[in-house]
Design a protein that fits this description.
By secondary structure, this protein is α+β, with helices and mostly antiparallel strands. The protein is built from five helices and six strands.
């Protein structure tokens, strides 16, 4: 908290900053869609202390899938470029989260289920459960699911082979 501000004012400042990040990101992404000649609408929100921006499309076309790529690789790259665009405008590091065509939302649901099942297995066997290597986003979702199931988990290994290990009680 900065000197002379109240916690409530600090929260408003954070919200305003995150909304600004979302607007900068939306402008950047609209430019990208124009360059790529792709149709899509931009949706902005603030989730868990970070700006969340989604590119969605009403069309049944698979055009936006090009921006997701195999296993979300293109999505990750576009997210990093968008974070850089926000940084260039604000001077602050951004933790902005980008979703395209609902890819991250579907992935989050799958990973939550994976984390819950791994927690059940660890409870049932009393043995640690090691999962496959994952991206930081994927590991965070699994860690959250394991914590919600009442167990602990940790990450082990070095990128890009870093994985979640679910620990029994």
């Amino acid at each position: 908290m900065t000197e002379g501000t109240t916690p409530a004012a600090e929260g408003v400042d954070t919200l305003t900053r995150l909304e600004q990040e979302g607007e900068i990101a939306a402008d950047y992404l609209e430019g990208l869609l124009d360059i790529a000649d792709l149709d899509g609408d931009i949706d902005m929100d603030v989730e868990a202390d970070r700006a969340a921006v989604s590119i969605i499309s009403d069309s049944t076309s698979r055009d936006l899938q090009k921006l997701v790529g195999r296993d979300g690789e293109v999505l990750e790259a576009i997210q990093e470029l968008t974070r850089l665009a926000v940084h260039r405008e604000t001077g602050d590091r951004s933790r902005l989260m980008l979703d395209i065509a609902g890819y991250r939302a579907r992935k989050r649901a799958e990973l939550t289920e994976l984390g819950t099942k791994a927690a059940e297995e660890a409870k049932g066997t009393g043995q640690p459960v090691k999962l496959k290597a994952m991206t930081p986003f994927e590991r965070k979702v699994v860690h959250d699911a394991v914590a919600a199931a009442g167990l602990r988990s940790e990450s082990e290994g070095e990128e890009p082979q870093r994985r979640v290990v679910v620990l029994p009680v």
